Amino acid sequence: MQTYSRRPSAVSRFELSAAALHIIAMALMLMDHLWATLLPAQDWLTCAGRLAFPIFAFMAVEGYFYTRNPERHCARAAPVFPPFGGGLVSV
User: I need a labelling partner for 16 at 20 to 30 A (CA). Which of 5, 56, 58, 63 fits?
Assistant: First the structure.
């Protein structure tokens, strides 16, 4: 009986869990907030920090597709995430 060693493909070599994405997004957001207030001359840190929102938005959409009750998921997200129905500040 022969066993074949399968080399991992490019996709399976680099996997991120939801927790890892959250940690990355939180670190990027911290960079954005700290360097926007403490070191305003560091524009590249602010630009790097702006990547946090797309990661959080991706996680919100993933949560919508994997939840058992999409209506409850949207109701929880509505106060803080504008595409789900509002936002903390209304214009």
Answer: 5
Task: Look up residue 62 and give its two tokens.
Answer: 């993933």
Cα(7)–Cα(54) distance, integer angstroms: 32
Number of neighbouring beta carbons within 10 Å of residue 90: 6
Q: What is the pTM of this model?
A: 0.63
pLDDT at 91 over 50: no
Q: Write down how long the chain is.
A: 91
Tokens 């070599």 label which residue?
A: 13
CA distance 49 to 32: 4
Tokens of 76: 């929880």
